[in-house]
Amino acid sequence: MRQNSDCPPLSALSIFLILLLAAPCALGQSVAAGDATATLDAAVQQLADRVAGIPNLRGPVRVRYFQEAGFATETGKDWQDMFREELEKLRVNVTEDAGANLLRVGLAETPTEVVLSAGVRLNDREEVRIVTLARAAFAIPNVPVSPIRVDQQMVYQSGDRILDAAFPTDDAGPGLVILANRAAGLSVLRVDGAGKIRQAVSLAGTGARVSRDNDGELQLHANDVGVVFAGKACRMAWTAPDASCHAAKSARRAATALKARCGDGTWKLLADGSDWFAPELLQVVPEGSARKGSAALLSNFPGPILSVSPGGEPNEDSALVVTRNLRTGNYEVYKITLACGN
Amino acid sequence: MRCTKSRWLAGISALAVALTLAAALRAESTKRPRYGGTLRVQLRAASLSLDPREWKAGSVAAADSERLGALVYDRLVTLDEYGRFQAGLATEWSHDVGAKNWQFKIRAGVKFSDGTALTAKDVVAALQPLIPAGLTIASGEGAVTIRAQRAVPDLLEQLASGRTFVFRAQSGNAPLLGTGPFVLAESTPPTPSEANSWALKPARMKFRANEDCWAGRPFLDAIDVTLGDPPLRQILNLQVGRAELIDIPPDLVRKARQENLRVWSSPPETLLALRFDDAQAATKDARLREALDLALDRETMANVLLQRQAQPAAGLLPQWLSGYAFLFGDAMNLERAKELRAALPANVAGGTEPLRMRVDATGDLMKVLGERVAVNARQANLSVQPVSHTASGAGGPAPATGLHLIAWHYDSLSPRVALQEMAQQLHAEAGALEAGEPRDPEKLFGAELQLLETRQLLPLVLLPEYVGMASNVRNWSVAPSGEWRLADVWLDTAESTASNGDGSGEPNAARGVHP
Description:
- By secondary structure, chain A is mostly beta strands.
- Chain A has helices spanning 12-21, 36-52, 69-75, 78-89, 289-292; strands at 30-31, 61-67, 101-109, 113-122, 125-134, 150-158, 161-166, 175-182, 185-192, 197-202, 217-220, 225-229, 232-236, 244-247, 256-259, 266-270, 280-286, 297-301, 305-310, 318-324, 331-338.
- The relative contact order of chain A is 0.11.
- In chain B, the strands form 6 sheets. Chain B has a 7-stranded mixed β-sheet, with helices on both faces. Chain B has a 6-stranded mixed β-sheet with strand order 16-20-15-19-17-18.
- Chain B is globular, with a radius of gyration of 26 Å.
């Protein structure tokens, strides 16, 4: 027999509605964005505080941790040690005694948040405390890549899609020129030595089209900047930054060759870049190596190598490599320098 | 003799090194993806709709439709694998302190596939019927505003997932226009086969590249989608090079991997669950619902029946979406289930009045799972009788069913909305929830716990999505919303089109957040 619709029971939906409406408007359990490590530490402390404050949580607790395997490789177990220490500072004893209350503690990643949660069953009631922080604020610090015989230094990073990077050729001081696809379209950026954008010229009004394969190369001249796309070339000057574009046969940049400050050989930089979801090795191969049988030097990158551009004079031992860090999603520019004596 | 052999080996090694290096030196500075080619996709769904207004929340068919919809339409914003919202058709967005008033600046210069410009009014017309009740959307100069009575801190998650695509409706039955990387070029419904009049030729949809897509032309020239092919035939087609991409049901994943096919899996996207219905009066008794819940052996369902291609489900939301699902423990307790059963009248789920369970979704997997539920119930002395969904209409009125075995697909990237949609769809008589409740994970946990404790809905297992793909498919990736990013896929002609993988069985692809 169907339920009389005039007299609905307290349905699950009603309970759900009541509970959500009763929620406080303030997002009190969120941790502010900031330095990633500090943010996770703050979240762990906050969770320990809130667990220690659970009414009727008396006596020692037995802690069991839950962490997804993939996430564990990034965060390690430091947070678990820290959580235990924080609990003990707050006079909550942690034990391995099987008779103690079981406290389940987890660190997880959702599409937008990092979620730290703890649950314990007391007197037939589930007490749960949850602290969240935005995933975007939780960037894992870059693990330094160990150069073997190739010095590698990150000189710029951005959430914008970087197509190419080059050393400036004018006298305006150190820095970089970046070709990037920003939210509003393609732009050429002048970045100073500290990584701050000093000038941005949009190519949005020139008819220059975005392509999916990060196709676009900078060609810097003494007084102006060229940008070459498939079938199109643009030119602009920093002093009068209205870019103009015209159809042109595009000449793809040849493999970049570097000269070490010691010795007189040249070395080619080779990369694949065909798989956007795999970290990549940059091969540094001596010219004519096939004949001499010399081995290539290898340098690790945290993602696919999207472009390699030569340093040119006076940076003939250096090049710029653009990659997409697969752990952070950021585009990064590295300066590669052939180091002597290793 | 030994000396000669060593020389040979040394010579061969030197030649191999030389050839490798020579090949490397021939390469350009970086290898570029290749433009061109047609990607042949085969899906199990027999028919799909490209109209987001027709997609029903939680429906597995809607999930397939959404994947194809993402070829044709764009969103205001998208979410990347790193938890960051990226500009889509909106280039900037902002909201007030209370997250009640949101403003989105619409990207200039975007065109629909017919060459007409996208306007803020188009965005309003498309999203008005798709956004949750309680939200209003209005257009301004190159911008749209979304307003709500209550805070909507998860509005971006809602806009980056589900059916919130931007499109323009045309007059008559003409397909909707989109701004996405592909355009629907041809759609053929299932037609009777010439050789066999009672058999149907599967439906097909052909998409061509949108040359003027604002985000760049896709690498592929076209995508050819065949619908409704049986899974075993799809696997064969992948093996012999007649398809590049297929969806594989969980019960055939093991077979596909044994045959060394390249198989990608998502985080769990579909919940299989039991839903009680008051069409059989016995289900109103909370003791019956609890007894059945405690009798269910979810571990065996996931690990034995589904050969570890599924996960036991203790909560309603998956761990990847809520972050706290591990706090819901396994409920199985057969002894307690028997005690509860013993306290019930004998004719409740027993004797001549079994609890009839309708299997709402099609497929062998659901049938087998339904039978397992019946076996588990019997262990607690409860009688559950599976009823096929096709049997219910055959001759005379269908018998009342008190239990449904359902499949629920998670559509939203907002756990609050996902739970809300589930509650709404499954208990529609209670009316719609208002949008805009604040985001509070502990309240959400409490709401989910309360829903579970009513035992109107018993989660069973969580199923990932499995995709088989040919070895020449490059740049495969999936958005956190579950949409395939086929605009970035390209076909490597240097690879054989044979579908055998590298032996690992797993392509090297991002997993969404998951991926």
